[in-house]
Design brief:
This is Ras-related protein Rab-2-B. The chain has 232 residues and is of the alpha/beta class. It has 7 helices and 7 strands. The C terminus is likely disordered.
Length: 232
């Protein structure tokens, strides 16, 4: 299947917030709780429809560890959209090796609100290295674990409002709002194209024109649905 536009996304946020699980749920419609850490960058893609036009989303899932930040930064420049993810809860990281449980318990438990408190740093990186018109969706993941909530919905909403972001809470496990988050981001990018914000002939904006679109030009592309790892 050809596409009218291809949008490139990047998923960013701390390790363990569920970035890869969100991608896997969106591309493959499944949840995989046992996983390895994302090393560097992984990839997924899926077709959606916006305004009756086929849109291909090409999604780069990045590692959250500080040691991979320089790699992550290199992907900002070619992205039209970013999903900035935090964990609304305080819970165990399942990627940690389950040995010496009593000794390591404290290291497994992130400080309450830690991933939310790091959002400003991730956003600063994105704003510094991405194009100024990149659409950013803030996602509070793991909303199915509301009994472990450490960050209120209102706090996430306020952070998004203050920084000009779109905001949703979602659950990669139950799929709540996962589709909506990816599609709403694409809708915002598409509106910017319609409003003339993006020069779609410049692929550095993370947008590629596919089949003939009135007023635009470009070649055709193919669709794929490919997951990129599991939770990270």
């Amino acid at each position: 299947m050809s596409y009218a536009y291809l949008f490139k996304y990047i998923i960013i946020g701390d390790t363990g917030v569920g970035k890869s699980c969100l991608l896997l749920q969106f591309t493959d419609k499944r949840f995989q709780p046992v996983h390895d850490l994302t090393i560097g960058v992984e990839f997924g893609a899926r077709m959606i429809t916006i305004d009756n036009k086929p849109i291909k989303l090409q999604i780069w899932d990045t590692a959250g560890q500080e040691s991979f930040r320089s790699i992550t930064r290199s992907y900002y420049r070619g992205a039209a959209g970013a999903l900035l993810v935090y964990d609304i809860t305080r819970q165990l990281h399942p990627h940690k090796p389950k040995v010496a449980w009593a000794v390591l318990l404290c290291s497994w438990l992130p400080e309450s609100r830690e991933t939310f408190n790091h959002l400003a740093s991730w956003l600063e990186d994105a704003r510094q290295h991405a194009n100024a018109n990149m659409t950013i969706m803030l996602i509070g993941n793991k909303c199915d674990l509301s009994h472990r909530r450490a960050v209120s919905y209102e706090e996430g909403e306020q952070f998004a409002k203050e920084h000009g972001l779109i905001f949703m809470e979602a659950s990669a496990k139950t799929a709540q709002n996962v589709e909506e988050a990816f599609v709403k981001t694409a809708g915002a990018i598409y509106k910017k194209i319609q409003d003339g914000v993006f020069d779609v002939s410049n692929e550095s904006y993370g947008i590629k024109v596919g089949y003939a679109v009135p007023g635009q030009s470009g070649g055709a592309g193919s669709s794929s649905s490919q997951g990129g790892g599991c939770c990270s």
